[in-house]
Amino acid sequence: MNYLNLNEDKLSNVVIELNQLLADYHLYYQNLRNFHWNIRGENFFDLHNKFEELYIDARGKIDEIAERILTLRFHPMSNYSDYLKLSKIKETESSLSDHEMVAKILENHSILIKQMNEVVEVAEAATDEGTIDLIGAYIRELEKSSWMLDAWNRKQTEQLKAVSNK
After folding, report:
1. Which residues contact 36 (CB under 8 A, 6 or more apart)?
2. Model confidence over 47-75: pLDDT tens digits?
């Protein structure tokens, strides 16, 4: 029964990209847990809380991505060994400085946003509006988190670009 009225052949491409995103999110989540547990120094309180906020958000998105795959009537990837093989995000060291941790998170965000754009592209080809809507919201949220982390990680003397309205 095709209660979603979607082309099942085209959906397989959506599921492949969603499984890639699922694998990437799992490694991102674990990196955040690593940083949450191992942050040291004067920024401990701020970053310890921020990393927890980010991994709680990531955990929710992991569940939603898997449930979207199930909604499309496919099995989500569910073995960590598969995530480790597939993910474009790699495990990180525990001994990074606070600024290195934030830089690594921003690097992970870049990978996630790129993969989300891949998901949207194949979902558009499949006219899968549910996936487009879900992932579009994720992109917006991750871009905002990236901006905030980047602002924290910049030197106070660095200026933003200006555009003239002439």
Report:
1. 48, 51, 52, 55
2. 999 999 999 999 999 999 999 999 999 99
Domains of the chain: 8-153 (1.20.1260.10)
Q: How many CB atoms lie within 10 A of CB 111?
A: 17
Q: What is the dihedral of CA 22, 23, 27, 28, to 10 degrees?
A: -40
DSSP designation for 20: H
Give the pTM: 0.93
One DSSP character per residue, 36-99 reads HHH--STTHHHHHHHHHHHHHHHHHHHHHHHHHHHHTT-PPP--HHHHHHH-SS----S---HH
